[in-house]
Amino acid sequence: MTTSRYSAATIDHFQHPRNVGRLAEADVVERLDDQPTETTIHLYLKLEDGRVVRATFRTFGCSACIAASSAVTELLVGRSLGHAPSADEVDAALGGLPADKRYCAELVAETARRALAASS
Predict the structure, then answer these.
(1) What is the pLDDT of residues 90-118, one digit of tens each?
(2) How many domains does the chain have?
């Protein structure tokens, strides 16, 4: 990861990702495979009373996709079903991604949207 291209928030999420790993008690597991970018995202959600109470991830891809996955787990907690974070929200949480890495926020937001839609 070339640090001059990324914000401090993105670097922090990549170097110290939050909520990594499988969630044994997950109510929802969503997987997204993006062949063009060779990215695979697994998102695990624990739900209570129609809200996300815990979110974890496993992502195989570039550093920006790992950072975006970490950020989305923080954005998801407390959200009600049907209110997935947008790509813009993920991008903002990371302090803005370079234009050529914007797809990472889009992939992660799509995975979150599909996970919440599957649970409703």
Answers:
(1) 999 999 999 999 999 999 999 999 999 98
(2) 1
